[in-house]
Structure formats: C-alpha cells, structure tokens
Amino acid sequence: MPYEPTLPSTTAPARYGDPVLYPTAVQHPVMPLAELPPGVQLVTLPNGLRTLAYTPPAEPLPPPVQPIPAWAKTTALLAPTLGAGIAAAGFGIAYAAPGLIAMTDALWAAIALIAAGMLAPALLRTTRRTGQATAPVQHITQNISATGLFGRATGTLNNH
C-alpha cells in the first residue's frame, strides 16, 4: 500500500484560498510592455519568477585602469626602507655624538701639532738669520778609501 499524506483534520471545512491548506497566487492586472515607464523593465529572477523592476540607466564603462609601473612599485617599497634607514642613522649619530665630539677635539689637537711642526723650522730660520751676520757658506768634501775587507781606511778633507 503506497504512502499517502493525510491533511490535518479541522473542525471547519477548508475554504478556497485558505493560506495554510490551499495557497493560491494573487493575480495582478497585467500591464502591456509598451506602457511601462522609463527605467522599469520586465525581468526574470533566478527562481524563474518574472516581475517588474527598476533598472539603472546604462552608463558608459569607465576607462580601463592602467597597471602600476614597476618603477612606481619599487619606489613605493623603497620609501619606507629609506626613511627607516635615515631614522636609524639619526639615532646612531645621537648616541655617538659624545664620542664624535671627543674625536673632533683630538683631531684639532693633532692638526695643531702638525701645524706647529711645520711652522717651527721656518720660524727658527727667520730668527737665526736676522740675529746674526751672514757668513759665507763653506763646502767640505771628504774622500775615504780602504783596501780589503778589514784594511785600514784613509781619508782626505778638502775645503772649498
């Protein structure tokens, strides 16, 4: 015996159009497609039901988006890295500032020492010349000769 569903029993007889037992679709008056106002169209929904709907006017498509150039991507990626590097250098200089000040003091002292070493002979020469009379310059030539590895050396001096 096949299974047949039974309707629940009610004390009142079922009426036509009862929403629980016998649902019926409400019939709307059909408007001719020629009389539809602008912006309204007859559309079919995904479940197959056809209905009227407002549709936006067709707008022209926006221009296609240009791809981002590789140099712009590279620049955008390098900008934070460069900024972080500059910030790190700033912190490093701030921490190294006392040592750098001491080094500059030492370098100025070294420069002063080198300058004094260069200027001292020039100052001595100028003071020596002005304090004494100029004497003629003497040239002395010395000739030394020896015979053999352990031979006695002899020499002559020539004053010019």
Q: In words, what does this structure look like?
A:
By secondary structure, the chain is an alpha+beta fold. 39% of the residues lie in helices and 15% in strands. The protein has one helix and four strands. It has one helix spanning 70-131; strands at 40-44, 50-54, 140-146, 153-159. The strands form two sheets. It has a two-stranded antiparallel ribbon. Strand 1 (40-44) and strand 2 form a beta hairpin. The chain is rod-shaped and about 145 Å long. It starts with 39 loop residues before the first strand and ends with a strand. 0% of the residues are buried. The model has no long low-confidence stretch (mean pLDDT 79).
Describe the secondary-structure layout.
Layout: E1 40-44, E2 50-54, H1 70-131, E3 140-146, E4 153-159
Antiparallel strand pairs: 1-2, 3-4
* Average pLDDT for all residues: 79
What class would the helix/strand composition place it in? alpha+beta
Distance between the termini: 156 Å
The count of β-strands is: 4
Major pleated sheet: 2 strands, antiparallel
Radius of gyration: 57 Å
Classify the helix fraction into a percent range.
25-40%
Instruction: Give start-end ranges of low-pLDDT stretches.
Output: none
Order of helices and strands: EEHEE
The rough form would be described as: rod-shaped
Relative strand content: 15-25%
By DSSP (H or I, 4+ residues per run), the number of helices equals 1
Record the strand order, biggest sheet: 1-2
